[in-house]
Amino acid sequence: MLAALDEHGRWVGIGLAGLVNLFNPDRIVLGGLFARMHAFIAERVAWEMERRCLAAAGTGVEVVPAGLGVDSALIGAAELAFESLLADPTSYPREDRGSLREGGGS
């Protein structure tokens, strides 16, 4: 089991190193199952990233687990679905509820 986690951490580190070299982020947030595995793979991920990242891009990159845990992807998807409503709630028309209050509607 530990060998499988080490191998997983290796591949996550390789993938993240490529992303760091392309986008130069300050922080990478691992969500879903990666957030649960973070404690077990963090050391291997950091080692792979240190080996593979360009010096300028890889300096100071923080890899952290998502604070929302396993449901972080679902919560993010829900936020995207409601993004325009949350940005401007007045842009959505309110349905006429008068007929429901008066008992006239189904």
What's this entry about, in short?
Strands 1-2 form a two-stranded parallel ribbon. The protein has 6 helices and 2 strands.
Give an account of the 3D structure:
It is a single chain. By secondary structure, the protein is mainly alpha-helical. It has a single domain (2-90), classed as ATPase, nucleotide binding domain (Nucleotidyltransferase, domain 5). The chain contains six helices and two strands. It has helices at residues 2-23, 33-52, 55-58, 72-81, 83-87, 98-101; strands at 27-30, 62-65. The chain has a two-stranded parallel ribbon. Helix 1 packs across helix 2. It is elongated, with a radius of gyration of 22 Å. The mean pLDDT is 86.
The CATH C-level name is Alpha Beta
Classify the secondary structure makeup into a structural class: mainly alpha
Indicate the mean pLDDT: 86
Kindly identify the CATH topology.
Answer: Nucleotidyltransferase, domain 5
How big a fraction of the residues is strand? 5-15%
**What is the assigned CATH homologous superfamily?**
ATPase, nucleotide binding domain
End-to-end Cα distance = 58 Å
Beta-strand segment tally:
2
| SSE string, helices as H and strands as E | HEHHEHHH
Helicity, in percent? 55-70%
The shape is elongated
How are the strands of the biggest sheet laid out side by side? 1-2
Biggest sheet overview: 2 strands, parallel
